[in-house]
């Protein structure tokens, strides 16, 4: 665990009142070689980068990441096709088992082809359900020619299943399974998903920050990659429209832990995916019903810890009222009616944090389940951009375990303060429980 810094958190950002007019069109600046501290340049030089090649590399990363956004959306389309009960009565297909069947038989399984046909029929129909409409738009944009849409979706299924097979059955058997899996994630599409579990560790670490620095007050917050609850690889729960709830979970934790005041808190949700940004912007001035569902499903072998249950129970109390318990067998689930004015505290910006930064300063930056998708060089660049967006003494929270995250963070001017792990659920007979870890850094 990192040693504790002695100085108090100093909030230096401009004060924004909830309900004030907030700009979603922040100035975006592309990172330059000269923006990087010399220690960080040395890390990047070890990965083959230099001043003369830097601009070209940034351009290639930008282009590659846009391609990965498209692949990530199509991954979600595949997982939705396999699992959804909204457009067909055919049995749901577990993706990992489907991946093994696909590799073993070297062809598209008949049950998959049947579900793709059912999806295409639903896409051509008039069903207005929000999640189906979301994927109708993605399919139409990716494959405007209806004559080739079926073969194209089956091709995306094959691509997604090859990755999933490599992850579940090849990398998992590697002597260094974590490293092998990490390399796969650095090459796959960029997921648009989100999870309630990510907020658990953020909440715990914010409680630690409050204990370490009782005078700390957070006003300006940046959330990098908040995502949408679109269609996870497993455990799809279709309880409403795709939503981005991490910004509101962070607000709830900041208010509940006494680190922020409603009258002065402003959150920016920055995501590379325009669908996420559009949803956040569209929610401003409204009072959406947040449908919160645990990503983990409890079974006879998987049991939530009391601490995680306690987090889920209080989640939302500082930003609204619990409207109803949502039926989701095995999952923790509930609906929160947001209080008036909460969404006015949130704006959004389209941002690739590897190559760009907002020309603003933040007291707190939260990044969960984003860094695993980045190569070592790109992780270093993302940390450089984040360091440049932090106000003096600003705090970064992330859950990336690679040692490079600490080394590159230090090189970018971020000092480690604290880290911890926490168990979400125990697994009877499993090699390890379901857990996550989080790290806290301060801008020097």
How does this model look, in words?
The protein has about 450 residues and is an alpha/beta fold. The protein has two domains: about 70-185, no CATH class; about 190-444, Vaccinia Virus protein VP39 (Rossmann fold, 3-Layer(aba) Sandwich), CATH 3.40.50.150. It contains 13 helices and 13 strands. It has helices at about 40-45, 50-85, 95-105, 110-125, 130-140, 145-170, 175-185, 195-210, 245-255, 275-285, 305-315, 375-390, 405-410; strands spanning about 30, 220-225, 265-270, 290-295, 300-305, 320-325, 335-340, 345-350, 355-360, 360-365, 390-400, 415-425, 435-444. The protein has an eight-stranded mixed sheet. It has a three-stranded antiparallel sheet with strand order 4-7-6, with no helix packed on it. The two termini are about 20 Å apart. Residues about 1-10 and about 10-25 have low confidence and may be disordered.
Strand content: 15-25%
Mean pLDDT: 92
Shape field: globular
In terms of structural class, how would the helical and strand content be classed?
A: alpha/beta
Strand order of the largest sheet: 5-12-13-11-10-2-3-8
- State the helical fraction: 40-55%
Total tally of structural domains? 2
Report the order of strands and helices. Answer: EHHHHHHHHEHEHEEHEEEEEHEHEE
Q: Low-confidence runs (pLDDT<50, min 5 residues)?
A: 1-8, 10-24
Cα-to-Cα separation, first versus last residue = 19 Å
Q: Tell me about the biggest sheet?
A: 8 strands, mixed
> Can you tell me the CATH superfamily of the largest domain?
Vaccinia Virus protein VP39
């Amino acid at each position: 665990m990192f040693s504790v810094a002695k100085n108090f958190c100093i909030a230096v950002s401009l004060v924004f009142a909830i309900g004030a007019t907030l700009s979603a069109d922040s100035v975006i600046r592309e990172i330059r070689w000269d923006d990087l501290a010399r220690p960080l340049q040395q890390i990047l030089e070890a990965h083959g980068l230099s001043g003369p090649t830097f601009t070209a590399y940034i351009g290639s990363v930008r282009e590659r990441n846009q391609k990965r956004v498209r692949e990530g959306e199509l991954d979600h389309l595949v997982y939705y096709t396999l699992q959804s009960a909204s457009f067909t009565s055919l049995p749901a297909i577990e993706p990992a088992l489907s991946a093994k069947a696909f590799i073993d038989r070297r062809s598209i399984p008949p049950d998959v082809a049947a579900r793709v046909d059912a999806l295409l029929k639903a896409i051509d129909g008039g069903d207005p359900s929000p999640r189906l409409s979301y994927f109708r738009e993605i399919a139409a944009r990716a494959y405007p020619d209806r004559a080739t849409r079926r073969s194209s979706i089956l091709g995306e299924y094959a691509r997604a299943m090859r990755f999933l097979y490599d992850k579940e059955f090849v990398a998992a058997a590697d002597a260094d399974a974590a490293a092998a899996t990490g390399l796969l994630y650095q090459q796959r599409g960029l997921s648009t998903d989100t999870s309630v579990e990510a907020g658990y560790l953020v909440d715990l670490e914010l409680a630690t920050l409050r204990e370490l620095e009782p005078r700390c007050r957070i006003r300006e917050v940046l959330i990098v990659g908040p995502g949408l609850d679109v269609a996870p690889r497993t455990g799809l729960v279709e309880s409403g429209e795709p939503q981005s709830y991490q910004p509101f979970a962070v607000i709830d934790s900041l208010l509940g832990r006494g680190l922020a005041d409603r009258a002065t808190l402003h959150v920016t949700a920055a995501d590379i995916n325009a669908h996420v940004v559009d949803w956040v912007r569209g929610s401003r001035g409204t009072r959406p019903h947040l449908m919160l569902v645990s990503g983990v499903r409890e079974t006879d072998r998987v049991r939530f810890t009391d601490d995680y249950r306690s987090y889920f129970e209080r989640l939302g109390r500082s930003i609204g009222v619990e409207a109803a318990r949502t039926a989701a067998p095995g999952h923790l689930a509930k609906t929160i009616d947001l209080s008036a004015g909460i969404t006015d505290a949130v704006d959004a910006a389209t941002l690739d944090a590897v190559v760009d930064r907002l020309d603003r300063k933040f007291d707190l930056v939260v990044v969960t389940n984003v860094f695993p998708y980045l190569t070592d060089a790109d992780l270093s660049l993302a940390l450089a951009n984040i360091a440049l967006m932090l106000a003096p003494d600003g705090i970064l929270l992330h859950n990336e375990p690679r040692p490079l995250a600490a080394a590159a963070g230090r090189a970018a001017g971020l000092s480690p303060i604290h880290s911890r792990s926490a168990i979400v659920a125990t697994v009877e007979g499993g090699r390890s429980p379901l857990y996550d870890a989080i790290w806290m850094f301060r801008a020097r």
